[in-house]
Amino acid sequence: MNINEKLKSLNDHDAISLHVPGHHNHTIGYLDEINLAMDMTEITGLDDLHQPESCIKMSMFELNRYPGYYGQYLVNGTTVGILSAIYAVAHLDGEVLISRNAHKSVFNALNLTKQDAKFMPMTISDKTNQYNGVASLRDLDLNNIKLAIFTYPNYYGETFDIEESIKILKEHQIPVLVDEAHGAHFGISSYFPKSSMTYGADIVVQSYHKTLPALTMGSVLYMREDLEIKANIQQYLKMLQTSSPSYLIMASLESAEKFYKQFDDQRFKYNRQTFIETMENVGFEVGSLEDPLKLIVSYRGLSGFEIQKLFEDVHIYVELCDYKFVLLVLPLWHESDKFPFEDMIDRVRNIKVNVEHQLKEEVQFKLPYETDSTMYRYNNIEKTKMMDLNTSYGYIAAEDIVPYPPGIPVILKGENIRKEIVDSLLQWLDRGGRVEGILNKQIKVKDEQ
């Protein structure tokens, strides 16, 4: 089945989206304003994203939620904003300070520019067993830092006191980049967390397409107007973004910004509560996080992989699953949306759990994440070989090892492979998880010969 056939098959089964993108199968927002006939190029009057002077400039002028910030459309996703910011400081002396739950684009940019980085001390969430924030930076040596990069919120919608971290870095005149990919909707009402721009972050990249009704790859880069490296970042954006930017993506970003400013949260709060109560009546346990747009759903005795199948059997698709729960990304329900809410409620009520196949005891499993502050060094490993994962401990990894979900590396290229990580990865794979960098339980390592 090819791509068109698979997508059509999902539509034919009236698939319900509890995952990104934020338009949830074209049921949320104002994307009806856009049609395929608007897929054009830079003809007369349509301006140029790389040097906006008319309609694109006017459209981006509406990215004015936060005084003192300049908003820039991105058509290559949040990744290109992160790459451009890291390229912009490559010529400066010093190190980049990063959180351990940095997106892989951060590590790719460091490798491309051959820069070293220092890891922040991290905290682990009791709810998700994922990095959920940064421990205090007060005791960290910040004298040689040229840029600090945070992930806020994490993939699961968990936040931390980023205001305090930004305050400390400001005291040292260190610019702050926030990967706010999953927080484009932050501040849309008082019911949701605030954006890091509220606390003075210098550069913030938001994936509008993840939680707002925009087309996939549509993101926005915000920079403080007085940012010293602003011109450098814009120059790299010209180099790294496509020379044929999609007008459909840009139009959807404009539409999503209008949606943000007109949103009323009353329908969302009512639907969310109704949905939670319905799932709990079926027997699911529902966990809330700092971001009310995200929910974690478990069922005693079942793994997350089994719960995902229960939902997919009634053609409801979740964002991700792990050993214990599934993660749902809720739509920003609003008046006159087209989301099949009542249909979804009926499908959830009809989920049948086969108790005979439940696990006899709770699954206890944790990936061994590092929390201390250490260094990340650029590594150029030329000679490599493939070997069995279960005998690889003690060797040097030749590429990043990234379990999905949530896409956070547990082994970085150049790091020593520890036995406890190997044991955890084998359990993860045996339970149905997947790991980027491991294929058929084979891993690429440095060839010492």
TrEMBL record:
Residues 12-267 form the Orn/Lys/Arg decarboxylases family 1 pyridoxal-P attachment site domain. Pfam families: OKR_DC_1, OKR_DC_1_C. It comes from the Bacteria. Residues 374-423 form the Orn/Lys/Arg decarboxylase C-terminal domain. GO terms for molecular function: transaminase activity. Its cofactor is pyridoxal 5'-phosphate. The keyword Signal does not apply. Keywords: Aminotransferase, Decarboxylase, Lyase, Pyridoxal phosphate, Transferase. Belongs to the Orn/Lys/Arg decarboxylase class-I family. This is Aminotransferase class I/II-fold pyridoxal phosphate-dependent enzyme. It comes from Mammaliicoccus sciuri.
